[in-house]
Specification:
With 350 residues, the chain is an alpha+beta fold. 17% of the residues lie in helices and 43% in strands. It is globular.
């Protein structure tokens, strides 16, 4: 196993540079299922009259003759050791572009196709969605945020989780699990270490949904002379004309965890039933522990977000997490001269 192709080229130039000759550090490749671009970081030795990395340079990286990464340099650091530390991103970086769009009734497949065209990237719908989303206005949002809202609505309606993946320069719309790995990760099988965390830091067991109502101002007679108000008087009048309508939902974990409260705004014309439902829905999603499982393992290129792997670890089984397929949500691959390892984050529900 080794780096079989690692090349850079400045757009508009015919010169191609083989970066294997000046590679100083391991190569790290990080991908995440939650709306972020794939990232490649590496260190290069400065060579007199040789290659100097520049922002916008194209990067291609293959491992053991398999395609891994295609993208552009976005950041270059240089220090006293005469080493360049380079950060490149794949084509998903252009989904951070912001725009204002009016969405008609449409599916996430259609919305994905439109923003991919607007971002100017190659794209492919691998897994199509037929669920129709309501018309809406997306004002001054990134393409990532637009799709995040659409993906969330589709998931709530259908139970299907869609995600984006850069397949060597082609952005693909996929549905998870995209692939189940044929091998397992665990004791005596690839894994070299793990950490498991249970947390209520992001939990909430009291949800208040608040609607702000303002009284209509009384009209002033045309014959009456309006007194000029000070800023303090205007503020006091505004407070006096404002009322808050509140609906609260509480969970059964208050006694055990203490009161963990969040507040959400209701739509201006939301009625009590709608506010109550919103509070209950948010409480259901927030009134729970979150679990994080991180695995350190000998790696294959199939260990990418959106794929599932069977995890078998005896000591995890002892604390209630038995052998099961878990979704990879984030992967950081490290490519050495002849070694390939990965740090994986897995989606855990107990």
């Amino acid at each position: 196993m080794t780096v079989t192709f690692f090349q850079s080229q400045t757009p508009g130039s015919k010169t191609k540079w083989d970066l294997r000759e000046i590679l100083k550090t391991d190569i790290k490749w990080t991908t995440d299922i939650d709306f972020s671009a794939g990232q490649l970081t590496f260190g290069l030795v400065e060579v007199d009259e040789g290659y100097t990395p520049k922002n916008g340079d194209n990067i291609w990286f293959n491992w053991n003759h398999d395609h891994v990464f295609k993208g552009k340099i976005f950041k270059v650091d240089y220090d006293e050791s005469e080493t360049f530390t380079v950060t490149a991103y794949d084509s998903l970086r252009y989904f951070k572009n912001q725009d204002s769009l009016i969405w008609p009734v449409s599916t996430i497949s259609q919305r994905f196709t439109k923003v991919a065209k607007l971002a100017g990237v190659k794209h492919k719908v691998v897994d199509k969605s037929t669920h129709k989303l309501v018309a809406e206005v997306a004002d001054s949002k990134s393409y990532f945020d637009m799709l995040k809202d659409s993906f969330k609505s589709t998931r709530l309606a259908t139970g299907h989780r869609y995600f984006l993946h850069d397949n060597y320069g082609v952005i693909e719309l996929r549905r998870s699990p995209y692939k189940k790995l044929k091998y397992f990760i665990g004791d005596q099988s690839l894994m070299t270490g793990f950490s498991f965390t249970k947390s209520i830091d992001e939990a909430a067991n009291v949800v208040r949904v608040v609607r702000t109502d303002k009284k209509k101002k009384q009209k002033t007679s045309s014959t009456a002379k309006a007194k000029k108000q000070t800023a303090a008087q205007k503020k006091a009048a505004d407070v006096a004309n404002t009322k808050l309508k509140t609906v609260t939902a509480s969970g059964g974990s208050v006694e055990r965890w203490g009161k963990l409260q969040i507040v959400e705004k209701a739509k201006d014309k939301a009625n009590a039933a709608q506010m109550k439902k919103k509070a209950a829905d948010i409480l259901k999603s927030k009134n729970k522990q979150t679990y994080t499982l991180k695995l350190t393992t000998l790696a294959t290129l199939s260990m990418v977000p959106g794929n599932q792997a069977m995890v078998k670890v005896k000591s995890l089984k002892d604390i209630g997490l038995g052998s099961k397929y878990l979704l990879i949500t984030k992967a950081t691959h490290t490519f050495g001269r002849t070694s390939h390892t990965a740090d994986l984050e897995m989606k855990v529900r107990i």
